[in-house]
Structure formats: structure tokens, C-alpha cells
């Protein structure tokens, strides 16, 4: 029984991984952006500029082919005082300042401000820049949020990374592959959850899951049981590691999660009975053609 599961999900995992060329392209693009910003704001040229990769690339949960790579770029603290002196939306003014630096450097590239980031839209991959100020010596930063008149927001990217890494260790390195798969479901079915929310929920689930020590032979159950877990999270709160910010998950995504859950239950039954093609058709309704029939 279950003759196709291991082959299907190990192939799915390989299909989602970044290629060496994609990784090289993303690393080179973000490093170039950081060098340009470092020269402008720290007034020196260097091969080791301020800033670092965050988001899915930073957590090791990126899916190929990637659309963007996220970075934090640390600005001199005196700039915080400068923008605090502005009237109006201080955070928007900061983003426009960073945007202008990149426009001057990459004049043939579409560069725009977008809520909390500045996006440099290169042909092959976009670099999303979050300008930040150091908040303390424990890895926390202050970032701009231009929404609703603007505010400063404390974030702790290293705590989020530790949360994912701890879950990955506890789950015998199954958390990151599962996060990539469930983000593929989010993308394929247009699920209104943020990618980092899917990552955090996957990590929470996998940390204590009864079969977390198993390999790809159990991934049909992994997906089914995660979706059951997720459906129970409607209107609950997600606690962000480090800052302990509580975010209400709402329930706008629930109907899609319930549909995916029911399809996964059906697919698992087909897998048990070795109805391989029928199972594959159900998985493709969840994940699209990234998973093979």
C-alpha cells in the first residue's frame, strides 16, 4: 500500500527547491542593492555592506522560481532623528528617500515604494528593501509602516528564524519542506494568508506532530493533518516570535482550507488503496502541477 507517496512528495520537494542559478542570481542582486545603499548612507564603498536577507530566503523556505528576495538594510541611527522631525507621514518620507537612492543607481529599473518596503524590480527577480534602525543589542530593529498615517514597528527577524530552525530540528528537518509545500497551496489556491503566517503555523504544527520523525512516505498524512490543524485556527491569534505581537488570523481563508482538507482526506484514502492517478489528481487540486500525478 501507499506505493506512490514517497516518490510523489520527494519529487514535489525537489521541484520546489531553488536551483543554484536562482540562488546565485538572488544573492548577487540583493548584495548589489545593499552596496549601493551602504555607499549612499554610510558614505563608503565596501564588499560587506550593512543589511541581511530576511523573509523566505532568510528562513530557508523560499520556493523556486523565486519572484523576490527580501532584505533589511540598517540605516545610521541619526537618520531616525532626522525623519522624526518631519511633519506628516515620516515613514513614507523615509521610503521615498531610499527609493530615490535606488532610482539614481538603477535608472533602468522600476523602483517603487510599497507600504513597508522599497521594491527594485529587476528583470529576473525583485529585491524588496526594508530600511531599518537598530533597536537594541538583541537582534531587534525598528522598521517603517506607512499605513494609516504611518508608525514605527519593532521586529525581531532572528527570533522568527530561530522559531523555524527549532521546529525544523524537532521535526527531523521536515518543517521547511512542509512550509514550502503549504505556501505552494497558498499560491495555487489564492489563499488569503501571508507567507510568514503559513510558515509560523507550519512550524507550530510540526514541532509536536506525532509523525514528525517520519520521511516523505508520511507526507500525505502530514498535509492532511496540517490542514485539519489549520482549520481549527480560524479567528485565533498568531504570536510573533521575539516581539510577542498577537495577530488575529481571522477566517477569510477558512473555506479554502476546508476544501483543501477534504481533498487531502480523499487523496490519502486513494493513496492507501494505491489509486495513484486519482490521488495525484486530488493533490493537484491543492498544489497545482508542481506536484506530479
Blueprint of the fold:
Layout: H1 5-16, H2 20-41, E1 52-54, H3 55-59, E2 68-74, H4 78-84, H5 90-105, E3 110-114, E4 117-121, E5 126-134, E6 141-145, E7 151-155, H6 157-170, H7 175-188, H8 195-208, H9 219-231, E8 237-239, E9 246-248, H10 254-272, H11 276-287
Parallel strand pairs: 2-5
Antiparallel strand pairs: 1-2, 3-4, 4-5, 5-6, 6-7, 8-9
Helix pairs in contact: 2-5, 6-8, 7-8, 9-10, 10-11
Compact overview of the structure:
The chain is α+β, with helices and mostly antiparallel strands and 293 residues long. The protein has helices spanning 5-16, 20-41, 55-59, 78-84, 90-105, 157-170, 175-188, 195-208, 219-231, 254-272, 276-287, and strands at 52-54, 68-74, 110-114, 117-121, 126-134, 141-145, 151-155, 237-239, 246-248.
